Amino acid sequence: MKKSTRMIIGFLLLALLFLAVWLIERAMGTNSMVITVLKKGAVYALIAVSMNLLNGFTGLFSLGQAGFMLVGAYTYAVFTIPMAKRMAVYQYYQGGIIQFEIPFFLAILLAGVVAALFAALIGMPVLRLKSDYLAIATLGFAEIIRAIIQYDKLGPITNGSNLLKTYPTFTTVLFPFVVSAVCIGIILLLIHSTYGRAFKAIRDDEIAAEAMGINLFRHKQLAFVVSSFFAGVGGALLAMYQGTVQANAFKSAMTYEILLIVVIGGMGSVSGSVMASFLFIACSEWWMRFLDSELMIGTFKVPLLRSGFRMVVFSILIMLVVLFYRRGIMGDRELSFDMFRRRKGVASK
Amino acid sequence: MSHVLRLENITMQFGGVVAINDLSMHIDQGEIVALIGPNGAGKTTAFNCITGVYEPTNGAVYFNDQCIVRNQPTGRMKKLYAGDNRTPCEGPRIAMTPDKITKLGIARTFQNIRLFKSQSAFENVLIGMHLRRTSNPFSATFRLNLQEEKQMRQQAMELLEIVGLGAFAYEKATSLPYGQQRRLEIARALATQPRLLLLDEPAAGMNPQETDELGEFIVRIKDDFKLTVFLIEHHMNLVMDISDRIYVIDFGRQIAHGSPAQVQDDPEVIRAYLGEEEA
Amino acid sequence: MIDKLLPCLLSGVSVGGQYALIAVGYTMVYGILRLINFAHGDIFTAAGFFMVYLAASLPLSLSLPLVILLTVALGFAVERVAYKPLRSAPRMSVMISAIGVSYLLQNLMWYITGGLAKQYPVIPWLSTSIAIGPTSTKIVTLFTPVLTIILSVALVTLIRRTKIGMAMRAVSRDFETARLMGIKIDSVISATFIIGSFLAAVGSVLYFSNYTSVTPTIGAMPGLKAFVAAVFGGIGSIPGAVIGAFVIGICENIIKMLGYTTFSDAFTFALLIVILLFKPTGLFGEKISEKV
Amino acid sequence: TIKIGVFEPASGDNGAGGKQETLGIEYANYVVPTVEVGGETFDIELVIVDNQSQTDKAVSAAQSLVDAGVSIVLGSYGSGVSMAGGEIFQSAKIPAIGCSCTNPGVTSLCDYYWRVCFLDPFQGTVMANFAMDEKAATKAYVLTQLGDDYSTGLGFYFQRAFAALGGEVVAGEFPEGTSDFTAYLNNAINDGVQVFFCPTSTTSAALIIDQAASLNVPFALMAGDTWESSVILEAAKGKNVEVFCSTFFDEKDESSTIAAEFVAGFKAWMNANPDKLTNNGGNDIVAAVSALGYDAYMVAIEAIKTADTAVPDALTLILPSVVHEGVTGAISFNEIGDANKDMAYIKKVNNETGAFDFVKTQSVADLG
Amino acid sequence: MSLLQVKNLKVNFGGIEALKGISFNVDQGQIVTLIGANGAGKSTTLRAISSLVYPSEGSIYYEGRDITRLDPQKIVEMGIAMVPEGRRVFSNLTVNENLLIGAYLRKDKAAIAKDMDHVYDIFPRLGERHWQLAGTLSGGEQQMLAVGRGMMSRPKILMMDEPSLGLAPMVVQDIFRIIKRLNEEGMTILLIEQNANAALHAAHYGYVLETGHVAMQGTGRELLENRQVREAYLGKSAKR
Ligand SMILES: Nc1ncnc2c1ncn2[C@@H]1O[C@H](COP(=O)(O)OP(=O)(O)OP(=O)(O)O)[C@@H](O)[C@H]1O
Ligand SMILES: Nc1ncnc2c1ncn2[C@@H]1O[C@H](COP(=O)(O)OP(=O)(O)OP(=O)(O)O)[C@@H](O)[C@H]1O
Ligand SMILES: [Mg+2]
Ligand SMILES: [Mg+2]
User: Fold this and answer.
1) How far does the centroid of ligand 2 lie from the alpha carbon of residue B114, in Å?
2) Which atom of ligand 2 is nearest to the CA of B177?
3) pLDDT of residue D367
């Protein structure tokens, strides 16, 4: 198949997917579990891919994702809460000091930009660090950002420890899908550009990469800033999905969750991250919910089922995936036409 | 007296260990110069000082008369400094990073092969071309550099053909046999469009037959690409065959210098390096 | 001033000692497997629950050793089930496995205990309050740092001077070659986990004697702090972990004493980052200088 | 059948409290398992979901209630998750009744939320007054948990009221996961405060009480409704420390027969069922949140009866006018959706018996 | 009977057959060499003998016992040591400790100390650096250390994978001298070399491997004189 025909088919498939999602929404109504899961899955897909860009493609072990999402989510929320509602939202701070609002699409962009700015600042000192030291430093920064946002004195801007609400949210599931798709598309383009190759070179061997004339710091910084930009956008989308944001939720556990998705999907596989996001969200928030409530089959009470059991089963599931799919669902390959062809070839043998 | 590469009084110390001791040498355009010496003499360290991987304790390196490295002992090293040359190098400290030096036109291969493991041979070469790009992240992402990208791919393919790896372009670099990995490393270095090529034991792990082929190959690319080659090697057949001049070092110090014939017969070199039988 | 500073230093040293015992466990495992054992904090918590449940039906003289035994067994089992099968897998998978184990342990503990805080049994001697100058504290506060230092000196000796210590260091670099030397790497790694879990068990007894309530997530924060301490000291270095833990414990308390309570955690991280900027591999970390 | 959603945490930081609240609802369902609508008797089925005490997980939990087709939702323990869920209920146009979420924002920012308990401004004011009046306090230390809206909110209102009454306040904040509170307690000792107001989760509470006792603190510990828990009793039992908390309900209050009936029935129900007893924390002490859960359920039933339908839209319309005589007092809603409640119970831990002693009731009227 | 017998050994790496049925013998007291182009499967053969990879088929006998798929440490215990390809010294251990760990399974302290002196005798360079971390040694120094470490277990068979890789000519001569000396002291040696010339000169018997199977065998001298071997492996040096 020629490259151009492949591209066309790819776009057609994507369009078909969008159409399917739109039809589902039509059929099930905006308010249904499928749609909720699809929304969150789309948001997480973007965030996971942005993390994969750092961890999987550039080999920078960063655990700061939740911090940048937090920045993005707050930037979005703070600037889009309608004036009329500010008094009630900033109940402890006389309506806060930001007395204007901006259109939501601008705010989404701004969310990315602010997160990217933070990343540029933070990157300057910490990107000199290696592997686990980098991880703990970025984790630390995420925690510091959270503490700052929760700081009482900044309450007039951030509302302190209290949540933000009443800003514009998704009206249709297509919105997060389109935004995520566009963002992931851009990340894909970057990965497959000469810069993306340089990222992978840095991942494979820093010393050799530097000897090939690749400026380590600048490229790491680029990956870090781009990843954070999209994490910020993802944070804004997450805020839209949730309808409320509170700094409290953006703990390291959230970063771990995303890291889990990335690894389960396969480090260095964009399609893996996307698939894993939807699976992970559906599994943890939807399909397994029944495990939490007691179930009677006739007069027989199914043992073990009670609150908390879902999470136990879920963590066992994760362990099983990690132990038996060491390199994740996709390894470092991508979903492609060739793959199916080869699969078929093997099957027909 | 314009040399392609000139080392001036380089001393490299690791704590108390003096790996290179007051080493001065020069290489001229179009030469193949070999650096030989016993194991641990400081050959690889010399390469590392030239390419900016290590910062020498004292001394300067000039590339086409441009100073790329210069340092003198400071702080703790002042006390520890044990080089022969007790007068520290003059001038402000210059410490270019390896990527800058590569950009100026010095490329290298590594003693222990360092290919980009997860990438194909083709991609390895493409990465070598990254530093000559004109695109910025934005134009590269949004494919405003199609022309350049096409050119890069074409050149990379040509390079692979030249080193005889055309057929293996899409193989994973690490799945290639050893000898071909060495060639791929050279192709990748060539991709950075160097003026000076540093080869660290390119024939290690090759059998004599392959080594012979490699020698011919090095001479050929030197001519084709108008390169200057600086080479570390323990295979004496190769070294004696292709080098114009040879520097011999031991314990970081130069012990001999001259044409292959001169060096081969130097008693000091025989004592320290070649051994009796070979002579 | 002194009557303000003394209690502050006192609790700083005590907190530092507790972090240190956990941090050493992290650092040992990291030193050998290059694995951040995220589950370590949860093993520590599990040790707390073992004690709560055992002490409910057994006398202390029995339950104490049993707790240590069970914790060590848990550490051993975690290694065998979750890490051993991944010996040849990419590093990231092992780490995810560690996160998975941590999730699993937390969720299991939640499921079993229902999530309510459980009171830790009183261990008579440790929990006794004594007066020091103007303030009073539990004996365990003073006992912890002393025991910590004794244990870590013993450990350092084990690793530097003994054959098994040498084997541990060898395994940490290269599994395959270590096997070629006749080293049973699985046993060496198990030994590491056993020592680490033992320290976690001891740490938990000291910790919970001080902070008498156990919840499924209580290990998370000391775990994180201990990990920060390990990084601070240069991960892989035992003296580094101990010193890092004490520095963090004391600084934290001074910051709180000065009234900057909002940023006490943030400060810990900021301190860590500043240290890393000057010493990118922590205070005593070996430089990862790769010979080119 | 008619489905009623129970939106409560069963895991996470507030899991323990959420379970107790759920117990109250379950008991209410046991007492009133059916409702008559349009002359026909319908079974009432509870649909219980776990919102994990996290705002980011609460969305899909709330959504699963909507998907299950509930007519009305009860809960949640914790204001943050209630607000997060409120978004979903609002867009699905399903009314919700909060049981113990005390943050003003729950109802003021959501048109579909009502609640049966009092609010933080009230509670904070009550405790400030109590500290002033009963403890003759002039100086108070307020310790709140960073990032916890309940804790900082209640702390804020206490601080405001206490300052308004002429008292002096020193504030401290601790990050989540803190185990060592001696620094804060020492600071309070050094500052010479008379009360230590620390509205926190029970996890931190147990640690604070224990450490306060071993430091022999010269002041009383005070907190809000979360501290009315067996965890607190266990922690304070046999120790030399004064602990007060305000709450919605007192199980020993004999003045109301409805309440007395509820307490007796609830205890019997729990004791007959070991699982329930475990969920309550291993004893049969009646938590105020259980009583509120019970009341919320009864209000929901009342609404269904009055509307004579279980269609969410109708319930939304009828709720503002519902009145109900509950075990935690008379319930009627104001225009924002909050219950017109004006009475808080103040309790003190009895260090010997390990139970709560009723101290007094305080109402807004008393405060003037 | 041979000390070490390899029978029809096959090794797979995820579908790729690296060894396609190799058989050879190593007799007591001999130096046996395996030569062959890159990727012929020489290292894989040694790794299979050491149980670092498990063969899919075939078996390995040592002193008449089947040792296929025994644990690596059992194999070392029985007296088969290996100097791995690429040196693989423990970079975080000192030179001294690296040698000590070579003697990990031995208990005789006095003899270990003696053997260590012996190693330092053979490689004085290592003696000078006995306190240095192995990771900072030069390539050649590391190679010496790897050989020294292999000797420390006092093996009956020492398998060496390209011991002369990256060594100075004089040291290469030394290495071959040492190999001969160890052999004279009674050690059986299985040697892999790219330096086919020197290897065949030193060896009693040699096998030529080609893409996973034995293409030729014979005594060292026979192979040296074989035209095919000369053309494929010995290069100009031999033609001269
Ligand atoms: N990072 C380092 N730290 C300490 N010592 C070092 C370091 N790098 C090199 N050395 C020492 O410097 C000396 C020279 O090493 P170098 O690698 O340059 O030798 P070489 O001449 O390349 O030897 P070979 O031919 O064996 O590769 C050696 O003694 C080595 O131990
Ligand atoms: N771990 C592995 N996974 C996949 N293939 C492998 C692995 N190890 C070796 N191979 C393949 O097996 C074949 C034989 O490799 P081996 O290392 O045994 O060759 P060799 O004869 O030692 O070559 P060299 O002279 O380069 O050391 C090669 O094609 C190699 O690519
Ligand atoms: Mg070298
Ligand atoms: Mg090999």
Assistant:
1) 17
2) 26
3) 55
**N- to C-terminal Cα distance for chain B?**
34
Q: What is the ipTM of this complex?
A: 0.90
Q: In b/e form, how buried is each residue of D173-197, taking b as 16+ CB within 10 angstroms?
A: bbbbbbbbbbbbbbbbbeeebbbbb
Q: What is d(CA C200, CA C205) in angstroms, rounded to the nearest whole number? A: 9
Q: Do C176 and E77 touch (CB under 8 A)?
A: no
Query: Is the residue at C292 inside a domain?
Result: no
Q: Give the number of C-alpha atoms closer than 13 A to the C-alpha of residue D272, restricted to the C-beta side.
A: 8
Ligand 1 atom nearest to E143, measured from its CA: 26
Instruction: Tell me which amino acid residue E23 is.
Output: S
Contact B242, B29 (CB under 8 A): no
What residue ranges define each of the domains in chain A, with the CATH number in brackets? Answer: 3-348 (1.10.3470)
Instruction: State which residue of chain C sits closest to E88, comparing Cα positions.
Output: C177
Q: CA-CA distance, B154 to B168, in Å (whole number)?
A: 15
Q: Which of B12, B14, B36 to mutate to test the pocket of ligand 1 (most atoms within 8 A of CB)?
A: B14
CATH number of the domain bearing residue C210: 1.10.3470.10
CA distance B247 to B5: 14
Q: Is E92 in the pocket of ligand 1 (CB under 6 A)?
A: no
A63 CB burial (10 A radius; 0-12, 13-18, 19+): buried
Closest CB from E86, E137, E232 relative to B40:
E137
D216/C136 touch (CB, cutoff 8 Å), yes or no = yes
Closest residue on chain D to C135 (Cα): D215
- Any ligand 2 atom below 6 A from CB of E158: no
Residue in this structure with the two tokens 């509470």, named with its chain if needed: D205
Q: From the CA of B155, how many Å to the nearest CA of chain E?
A: 28
Full domain range(s) for residue C140: 2-278
As to burial, measured by CB atoms within 10 angstroms (0-12 exposed, 13-18 middle, 19+ buried), residue A20 is exposed
C170 within some domain: yes
Confidence band, pLDDT 50/70/90 cuts, at residue C288: low
pLDDT over 70 at E235, yes or no: no
Q: Is E224 on the interface with B (CB under 8 A)?
A: no
C256 part of a folded domain: yes
Q: pLDDT above 90 covers what percent of chain D?
A: 22
Each residue's pLDDT tens digit, D192-209: 899 999 999 888 888 899
Nearest CA to ligand 2 atom 30: E39
In a domain, C286, yes or no: no
Task: Select from B117, B130, B145 the Cβ nearest to the Cβ of A212.
Answer: B130
Q: Which amino acid is at E208?
A: V
Cβ-defined contact of E84 to C169 (cutoff 8 Å): no
3-state SS, one letter per residue, for C47-102: HHHHHHHHHCCCCHHHHHHHHHHHHHHHHHHHHHHHHHHHCCCCHHHHHHHHHHHH
- Closest approach atom of ligand 1 to CA B48: 18
pLDDT tens-place string over residues E94-111: 999 999 999 998 888 899
CB contact under 8 A, A137 and C272: yes
Q: What is the mean pLDDT of residues B33-56?
A: 91
* Tens-place pLDDT, residues D9-31: 887 778 888 888 999 999 999 99
Task: Write out pLDDT tens, residues C148-173.
Answer: 889 889 988 988 888 888 998 898 88
Chains in contact with A via at least 3 Cβ–Cβ pairs below 8 Å: B, C, D
pLDDT at B208: 82
Neighbours of E113 (CB within 10 A): 12
- The identity of residue E105, as a single letter, is L
| CA of residue E214 relative to chain centroid, distance | 18
Taking 50 as the threshold, does the pLDDT of residue B91 lie above it? yes
Facing residue for A312 by CB, picked from C101, C108, C262? C108
Residue with tokens 């790694």: C189
A338 CB-near residues (< 8 Å, 6+ apart): none
Domains of chain B: 1-105+199-279 (3.40.50.300), 112-193 (3.40.50.300)
